[in-house]
Amino acid sequence: MWSEDVEHDGRIAKLTLSEDGVLCWTNSAFSDSVILREDVLGLSRDRFTLTLFTFKLGKVGCFGSSSSRVRKDVVLHFRDSNTLDSWYQRMQAFLDNQGRPKRLYILINPFGGKKLAKRIFQQKVKPFLSAAGVSFTLQETEYRNHAKELAKSMEISQYDGIVCVSGDGLLLEVLNGLLARSDWKMAMKMRLGVIPAGTGNGMAKSVLHYGNESYNVENATFAIIRGNTHSLDVATVVQGQNVHHSVLSLAWGIVADVDIESERFRGLGELRNDIYSLIRITRLRKYRGTLAYVPAPGYEGSLDHISREDSDLLSSSIPDMNIEKGQQWGGYSGSMSVPEKSEWRIMNGNFILVWLMNVPWATQTVLAAPKAELSDGFLDLLIIKECSRRELLKSFLKLSDGTHVKSKIMDYLKVRAVCLAPGGQVNGGVEGGYISLDGEVLARGAGAYGDGSKDPMCYGSSIYITVEKGLATVFCA
Ligand code: ADP
Ligand code: MG
């Protein structure tokens, strides 16, 4: 324990610092404290003055009814500059030892969400980084896949983290860029962060929720500054020679239709999903298809066993995955082992929804998979087959608190691998549907909305999805 008399707010105060980094200042009328690791962005000093840039939980609202972090500078005057020197160095060393990032590579998507990313960065993120003494290289993305190219070619040794000021789409590009590198193993140790500035911000919400922090730009920035890290499962999606990676979600059926077709209502912001969901429930589409999956331990009994004819169907699709094992694409060649045939379960027929989640929150307001964990090595699978519009609406209204998974129309389980063969609409509807990956089109059926010329995968033949435990690394609250 160190102790010193300093001046604070015009009064003499006793300043103490404990071994575990709790700093207190107390005078006859007043006492306050911060935990350096958890409440302090950074420090600055001049000759006799030390300033602490704090961002600490405090009571807010008319009657102190809720608590949230509050930004405040604490100014302490020292008697002489040598004493200040030793205090400053001691405290700075404490912060430096927490693994906080010093240099960040920051990507901004100026077209994400309501096109506010640049302003969000200038007004909210940059002041925090300055207070924390974090240096950064700033790069605006200029076109689709730019972030992927940048992540593929960047000098990773120059940075302690890559931060996307965007929605989930840009993060997905960065992940795919890093996994396309020949040094992908090393690149996966790079910490990834997201400052929410898109339409869908499921990853930012999921990591803040994990650390019990509320969802906002300042808290997301602070989580990155504090430098806490968590490993994150990465899903690998394969169709023939074609490979993509995902950290958030894959959807087919109503959720994908809403994600993609509501693009044309971008101007509505977040509301676009709610409004378009209502339209899609009213004019409900069902798709034919085959879904095979390998349940996680403890979920084996959830649905029927594989049948003979289905087994043939499986073997015609799954051997595709065995061949490449990564060599062709130069990058990721991780655990692509295909589970034994006996481990697979299969469902044929009509589907309203197949939804795979890697993290709990699909967007900042949709708790799609309440049991999903950042690095449990499994994907959470939600399935809706036949149901009435009323039941579907009832269950969708519960998406914000995760209780939809208890609904009778929904199967909810954890899986190790999935094989999906999407088909056309039941009853001859012409819209062919989509598979969406982290909110972007992965493949689209004939007659689906939009120009599919640049879609990463093609529709119809089966898509295989597996997951590697804790492959990526994220900044975590
Ligand atoms: P949102 O959540 O609003 O979709 P994202 O940040 O996820 O926002 O970005 C959506 C997509 O925008 C990304 O997939 C990315 O490829 C694309 N993108 C990035 N930069 C640009 C740009 N300058 N112009 C057009 N599209 C871009
Ligand atoms: Mg998981």
Q: Characterize the overall form.
A: elongated
Q: Could you give the distance between the termini?
A: 28 Å
Helix content: 25-40%
Query: How many DSSP-defined strands?
Result: 22
**Uncertain stretches:** 319-328
Mean of the pLDDT scores? Answer: 90
Distinct small molecules bound, one entry per kind: adenosine-5'-diphosphate, magnesium ion
Largest sheet: 15 strands, mixed
The secondary structure category is alpha+beta
The portion of residues forming beta strands comes to 25-35%
- Count of DSSP-assigned helices: 13
Q: Helices and strands in order, then pairings?
A:
Blueprint: E1 2-8, E2 11-17, E3 22-27, E4 30-35, H1 36-39, E5 40-45, E6 49-60, E7 66-77, H2 81-96, E8 103-108, H3 117-132, E9 135-140, H4 146-153, E10 161-166, H5 168-179, H6 184-187, E11 191-196, H7 202-210, H8 217-226, E12 229-239, E13 242-246, E14 249-253, H9 254-261, H10 271-282, E15 287-295, H11 308-317, H12 319-324, E16 345-351, E17 353-357, E18 379-384, H13 389-396, E19 410-425, E20 434-437, E21 440-444, E22 463-475
Parallel strand pairs: 8-9, 8-10, 10-11, 11-22
Antiparallel strand pairs: 1-2, 2-3, 3-4, 5-6, 6-7, 12-13, 12-22, 14-17, 14-20, 15-16, 15-19, 17-18, 18-19, 19-22, 20-21
Helix pairs in contact: 3-8, 4-5, 9-10
